[in-house]
């Protein structure tokens, strides 16, 4: 009976370790160090601000972020732009509002409480402008893909100058090492000096990919810092409480033979 | 449960045992209290509601003698650009004639602009503008009359129309709330 | 049980005279004579009660913000995560709580299977437990549909489509269930209503479950009947404190997931909004359903698969009669306990296979594992009870304890 229990335990261990990254048609992504990973992880303000710049200048022409509002850019745990800055940034976009007294819809500059403006009126417009493939919304993209931030980062950098031999690509399909079946409908968008960072950081491909991925990670988990902060306190509290209960329990049972 | 051994050293043992139980009990209680807070807090206005808690209003299209009504926190707010006559009328009223005495000066920041929550202080209907015996507003539900400063003059309403918190961001814009 | 205690305060006396709730509470939750030798496998009942209450309370407050409309559901969950005060915490507790609920229930059932807690006179407690488990399965399934992600939608499609396997009436039943000709907003709203309702049905069954338990009293690791007084201690404070201790340790694991790895037990596809025109590559249910999913897919026939999956749970209700052993606890069943461990391994293997594509070696293993699962109940349980020679049972539960003390006394190490 002891033998079977041991077999059981070792089987358990091997099964759980095999749940690791599903191989097959996916290339293992790169694993850079992220400031926000791990139990004590935090976002870096400058990184998120640069990431927002990359999103706005590079990605937002095709990808919406419907779940974000401009006011989110001010809140704690995020890029933490100032209110004045965000009001100005938001005002650069126009949203449809109304109807007015004549029953007409009209355009007005975006304010803090507005959601991020989408590049498309609807999904169909997005599809037709991109050869039938709708550029997905990026609000929770980091949580919507196995591999998360590592995968997205790798994908952005996974394009090759030359398609390897033996691979034929349809129109509007591109080669990317990290994409499923190494094919993806999105062209390379991250190029050296693609943006001019306002804080003067050199806009290398790696830098831009990092920054925008961190921004997307924040967008998917804006409460990450608060969550880990509270979590730390909760676990310490529970550990102390378990010690107190352990000794209380011991004391209660001391006089009973069991 | 106490054996003879325990009773002999009862005092010392009781103190230590009680201390342990007390500590564990209070530590648990503190945790339980902290745990309860998020469940209570989640019913408070959330971030998206708070974002709409203040509204900016562009005053430039409003002509003298004209009012607009905007929605603020789910309620109508009357923004009226008063004429000289309306201002004079409001300032001339004797406090003793008012059921809810309040000077016009305390109700406006700039005399030309009257900003009030358009909800009758009687039972909550929306008063109609440019009506009533006092040249101001008239509430059709139960017949309350408000003057050019939005003060109750006649009728069942107990208080003057509420003035919300607002600031002039510049000459042409106010922010309410 | 309840005749020992009399309420002390005037208020308590007044209430108790009109509604004997004070003596009921005291009798069943404080003085209740409980075997003194229960180990930590017995703490899962209390942990499960905590899980149920947690899910109900977090679910209640989430329902204040969630919108059960196909166009708004996904965004409403994100609204909870982003805008509602502590919404992210409540949502993660609720989602993780479902997994913790199933971890606890599987361990609770494993305890019952090992120590023979389902055997006479506790058969009905076990059967009520099977019904509680069924309601849990239904509740969790419907709950997972509510965020209206890709897995929500397609998982619902796959499982509700199973009803079309019913001969003659299959399609009618499925359309009736859907309220439509496919999974859509109609299904979502009714699933929300039922998901809200079921935990209260579970709560009612839990009351019956504990009531039925309190007739014979708890089983214990030795599996033999206890003598009240000599072998028992009052539930409070001995097991109240022990249960809370176990609960706090459980909460540390719970908190570890909620605060540091809240999405690891879920599937990334559920962060993609439901798209009726695009099927995910691998439709996988939540981990706690994987063993039953493997059984479903092991049978090549659609109706056969459905029958197998339902039978896999239904057969549990018959265990008190399938197991022929007169001995309760596997501690004293040297032959059967080996098969017990094989069943546990088999269940875990089925779980692993449920997450793999149902092809090739995975399918073969899945079929073998399914075969063993049923054989264990239909063949092993009835047979082993007859042929096994159990170890001699102790005369009382105090005996193994006393003999330990006697041994210590002999070696001069008395505490």
Question: What does it look like?
Answer:
The complex is a heterotrimer of chains A (258), B (177) and C (415). By secondary structure, chain A is mainly alpha-helical. Chain A is 41% helix and 5% strand. In chain A, helix 2 packs across helix 7 (205-220) and helix 6 packs antiparallel against helix 7. Chain B is built from 5 helices and 10 strands; from the N terminus they run αααβββααβββββββ. In chain B, strand 2 and strand 3 form a beta hairpin. In chain B, 21% of the residues are buried. The mean pLDDT of chain B is 90. Chain C has 3 domains: 1-31, no CATH class; 40-222 and 230-283, Cytochrome Bc1 Complex, Chain C; 297-392, no CATH class. Chain C has 16 helices and 2 strands.
Summarize the structure.
The complex is a heterotrimer of chains A (258), B (177) and C (415). With 177 residues, chain B is of the alpha+beta class. Helices cover 31% and strands 26% of the residues of chain B.
Q: What's the helical proportion of residues of chain B? A: 25-40%
Q: How many helical elements of chain A?
A: 8
**Radius of gyration of chain A in whole Å, from Cα?**
25 Å
Distance between the termini of chain A: 25 Å
Average the pLDDT over all residues of chain B and give the rounded result: 90
Shape summary of chain B: elongated
**Strand line-up of the largest beta sheet of chain A:** 1-2
| Helix and strand pattern of chain A | HHHEEHHHEEHH
Given the structure, what is the number of helices of chain B? 5
What general outline of chain A do the C-alpha atoms trace? extended
Largest protein interface?
A-C, 47 and 47 residues
Rg from alpha-carbon coordinates of chain B: 29 Å
Low-confidence region ranges of chain B: none
Structural class of chain A: mainly alpha
């Amino acid at each position: 009976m002891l033998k079977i229990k041991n077999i059981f335990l070792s089987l358990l261990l091997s099964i759980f370790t095999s749940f690791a990254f599903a191989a097959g048609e996916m290339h293992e992504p790169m694993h850079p160090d992220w400031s926000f990973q791990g139990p004590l992880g935090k976002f870096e303000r400058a990184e998120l601000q640069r990431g927002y710049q990359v999103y706005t200048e590079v990605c937002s022409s095709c990808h919406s972020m419907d779940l974000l509002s401009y006011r989110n850019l001010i809140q704690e745990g995020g890029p933490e732009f100032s209110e004045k800055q965000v009001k100005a940034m938001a005002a650069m976009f126009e949203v449809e509002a109304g109807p007015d007294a004549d029953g007409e819809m009209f355009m007005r500059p975006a304010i803090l409480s507005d959601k991020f403006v989408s590049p498309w009126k609807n999904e169909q417009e997005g599809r037709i402008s991109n050869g039938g493939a709708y550029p997905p919304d990026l609000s929770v993209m980091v949580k919507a893909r196995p591999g998360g931030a590592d995968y997205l980062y790798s994908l952005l950098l996974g394009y090759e100058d030359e398609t390897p031999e033996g691979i034929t690509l349809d129109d509007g399909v591109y080669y990317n090492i990290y994409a499923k079946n190494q094919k993806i409908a999105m062209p390379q968008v991250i190029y050296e000096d693609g943006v001019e960072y306002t804080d003067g950081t050199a806009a290398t491909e790696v830098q831009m990919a990092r920054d925008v991925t961190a921004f997307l990670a924040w967008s998917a988990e804006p409460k990450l810092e608060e969550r880990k902060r509270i979590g730390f306190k909760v676990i310490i509290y529970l550990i102390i409480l378990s010690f107190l209960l352990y000794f209380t329990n011991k004391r209660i049972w001391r006089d009973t033979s069991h | 449960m106490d054996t003879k051994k325990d009773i002999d050293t009862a005092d010392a043992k009781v103190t230590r045992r009680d201390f342990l139980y007390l500590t564990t009990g209070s530590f648990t209680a503190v945790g339980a209290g902290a745990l309860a807070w998020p469940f209570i807090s989640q019913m408070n206005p959330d971030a998206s509601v708070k974002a709409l808690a203040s509204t900016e209003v562009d005053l430039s299209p409003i002509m003298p003698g004209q009012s607009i009504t905007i929605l603020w926190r789910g309620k109508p707010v009357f923004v009226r650009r008063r004429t000289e006559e309306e201002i004079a009328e409001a300032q001339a009223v004797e406090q003793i004639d008012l059921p809810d005495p309040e000077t016009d000066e305390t109700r406006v920041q700039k005399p030309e602009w009257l900003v009030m929550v358009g909800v009758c202080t009687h039972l909550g209907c929306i008063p109609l503008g440019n009506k009533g015996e006092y040249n101001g507003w008239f509430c059709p539900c139960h017949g309350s009359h408000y003057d050019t400063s939005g003060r109750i003059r006649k009728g069942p309403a107990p208080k003057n129309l509420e003035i919300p918190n607002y600031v002039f961001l510049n000459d042409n814009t106010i922010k309410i709330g | 049980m309840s005749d020992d205690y009399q309420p002390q305060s005037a208020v308590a006396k007044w209430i108790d005279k009109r509604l004997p709730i004070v003596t009921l509470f005291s009798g069943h939750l404080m003085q209740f004579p409980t075997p003194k030798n229960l180990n930590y496998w017995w703490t899962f009942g209390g942990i499960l009660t905590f899980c149920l209450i947690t899910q109900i309370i977090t679910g209640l407050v989430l329902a204040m913000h969630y919108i059960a409309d196909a166009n708004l559901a996904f965004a409403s969950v994100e609204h909870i995560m982003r805008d509602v005060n502590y919404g992210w915490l409540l949502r993660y507790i609720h989602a993780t709580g479902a997994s913790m609920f199933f971890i606890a229930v599987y361990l609770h059932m494993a305890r019952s299977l090992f120590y023979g807690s389902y055997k006479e006179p506790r058969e009905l407690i076990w059967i009520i437990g099977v019904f509680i488990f069924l309601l849990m399965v239904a509740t969790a399934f419907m709950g997972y549909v509510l965020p209206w992600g890709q897995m929500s939608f397609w998982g619902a499609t796959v499982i509700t489509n199973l009803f079309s396997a019913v001969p003659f009436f299959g399609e009618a039943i499925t359309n009736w269930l859907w309220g439509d000709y496919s999974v859509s907003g109609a299904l979502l709203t009714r699933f929300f209503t039922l998901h809200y309702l079921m935990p209260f049905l579970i709560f009612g069954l839990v009351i019956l479950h504990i009531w039925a338990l309190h007739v014979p009293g708890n089983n214990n690791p030795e599996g033999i009947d206890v003598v009240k007084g000599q072998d028992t201690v009052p539930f409070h404070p001995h097991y109240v404190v022990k249960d809370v201790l176990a609960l706090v340790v459980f909460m540390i694991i719970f908190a570890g997931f909620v605060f540091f790895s809240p999405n690891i037990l879920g599937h990334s596809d559920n962060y993609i909004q439901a798209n009726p025109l695009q099927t995910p590559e691998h439709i996988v249910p939540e981990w706690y359903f994987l063993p039953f999913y493997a059984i479903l897919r092991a049978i090549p026939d659609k109706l056969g698969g459905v029958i197998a999956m339902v039978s896999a749970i239904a057969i549990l209700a018959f265990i008190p009669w399938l197991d022929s052993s007169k001995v309760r606890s596997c501690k004293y069943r040297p032959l059967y306990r080996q098969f017990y461990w094989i069943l546990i391994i088999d269940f875990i293997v089925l779980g692993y296979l449920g997450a793999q594509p149902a092809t090739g070696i995975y399918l073969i293993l899945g079929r073998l594992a399914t075969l063993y699962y049923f054989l264990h109940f239909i063949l092993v349980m009835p047979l082993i009870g007859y042929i096994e020679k159990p170890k001699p049972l102790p005369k009382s539960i105090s005996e193994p304890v006393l003999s330990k003390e006697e041994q210590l006394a002999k070696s001069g190490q008395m505490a």
